[in-house]
Specification:
The chain has about 150 residues and is of the alpha+beta class. Helices cover about 20% and strands about 35% of the residues. The chain contains four helices and five strands.
Length: about 150
């Protein structure tokens, strides 16, 4: 069995990073995910609905989180071989809307590490706080990575 992930990394804060929310990417994502509401692709429709611009579609924040300077930072820190991982779960808790033109800051940390099935599976829970350029909390992201051993 592969070495267990060192639990001392629970609470470790990964590097903070900022990402720009671009209107073209929002439109592409909305189309790719089957959003039918015109507020996600048409600025006039978004404004008519009371938004200041194109709103960020559900789950788009995960795409921005993957654009961090080193997407493998957590795996490298924990010594996890990418060939043994599975994406286990994704959870979004929204606090306020984000829009095209915003600059969002992502602050990820390792919230928990635990195992199941006698250590055959290990789970790494990453929690990421997302805020906008005004310092307002936009969302809390939770990602569960599963590491298979054996």
């Amino acid at each position: 069995m592969a070495a267990r992930i060192d639990r001392r990394h629970i609470g470790h804060v990964l590097p903070r990073f900022t990402a720009a929310v671009e209107a073209g990417r929002l439109r592409f994502f909305a189309k790719a995910t089957g959003q039918r509401d015109p507020v996600y692709v048409d600025e006039a429709a978004a404004r008519d609905a009371g938004h200041p611009g194109l709103p960020v579609p559900p789950t788009f924040l995960f795409c921005l989180e993957m654009e961090q300077p080193n997407p493998a930072a957590m795996r490298e820190l924990l010594g996890i071989d990418y060939r043994s991982i599975l994406h286990g779960e994704q959870h979004f808790e929204y606090h306020t809307m984000a829009y095209a033109g915003d600059r969002l800051s992502f602050e990820p940390r390792i919230a928990d590490i635990y195992d199941k099935k006698g250590g055959a599976l290990e789970f790494v829970l990453r929690e990421t706080a997302v805020s906008n350029q005004r310092g307002e909390a936009v969302a809390a992201l939770r990602t569960l990575t599963v590491v298979r051993h054996g």
